[in-house]
Structures are given as C-alpha cells and as structure tokens.
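Standup notes
- DV: blocked on the single-chain target, sequence here:
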Amino acid sequence: MAETTTKPPDIALLPTLGLGYLIPFMELTKRLAHFHNLHVTCIVPTNTIIGFPPNSIKADLEALNSPSLNHILLPPANLDDLPQDTELTTLLYFAMSRSMPSLRKVLKYLMENNHLVAFIIYPLANFAFEIARGFNLLTYIFFPSSGICLSWWLYLHKLDEMVPFHFRDLLYPVRVPGSSIRLRGRDFPDLDKPGRVWSVEI
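- DV (later): unblocked, structure below
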C-alpha cells in the first residue's frame, strides 16, 4: 500500500509596505518554520513609486526559500491616477487597498495547494481581514512594537471622535493612555482624509 504524506500546516504572513514592518515579519517567518515544524509563506506587497522592497532586502527574501519557507511578491498596485504630491500615508493606503485582489488570488492558491490554516497580518494591512474571513481563515495581528505604541493605536479611534479637525491643529497636548507621554499637535503627521481614515480604521 502506498504511503501517504501529510503536508505540514501552512501559515501565511502579510506585512505592509516598509522595512520596519517587513524585517520583523521575516524573522517571525523563520522562527515559525524552524521552531514549530510549520510551512510558512511570507506574502510581500510591492510598490514601484516608493521602491519597495529595496534591492538591499531582495537577497534576504530569496534566502527565505526552502522546503519549509517561501515568499511571494504581490504585483505592485497601479497608483498612476494619484496626484504627484500625494501624502506618503495616503500612497500606502491605496497601495495596500489596491493589492487586495492579488492577495485574494494568492490566498486562494495557498488554500487549494497547501494546508493553509492561519493568516498573520500587520495592523496596517487591515484590508486583508475581510478577505481572510471569506476563506474562514484564523487571522491574527502581529504588532512588533512597544506597548505604548499599541496603547496609542487603540486610543486613536476615540481621539478621532473628539477632534473634528486635523490632529496637527490641536492646541493642547494629548496624553498617551498608560504612560506619561504627551503629544502636541506638531508631533502628528499631516494626514489628508484617506490617510487619517486608514489610521483610525486600524
């Protein structure tokens, strides 16, 4: 009787655009594969306007490829319709949101060909939640930052309700919950509407 082989569980990870997000995800990818006997796929968004991923990191991505690890580069989303002076946060917003059809195809492929059981995303890739739900995938957030930063992100929705104008126009400092840190208006990025909506949705 022929011996059947069972594929190990596959975990897919999705960072967002930026080395500060990609590098921790690459490390998590390696640890999940090496210490937990999993197959891990790192799905990497790309963007030609901001030059991501840079050539300096491509060799490291290639080094991920092994029997238990691999990476997939999403095709860059078309941003040609955006004005030349579009804020970086807004560029990232549209680059990620317009990459979702490609992500859906990749997840569908992994569901059909690998034993995909879970999906891990960075908060700035929050568009992917709905897609993962459609595949009934267990979905988790990986937040490789400080507790104070997490506290700030969780508080941002409440601040948005209290402040109807640009955060940069605040006349008083805002305390980060759980810390003694106070942020002044000039400490905030100058977000236009899509960028602010994205930040608050996270």
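- Follow-up: The chain has a mean pLDDT of 82.
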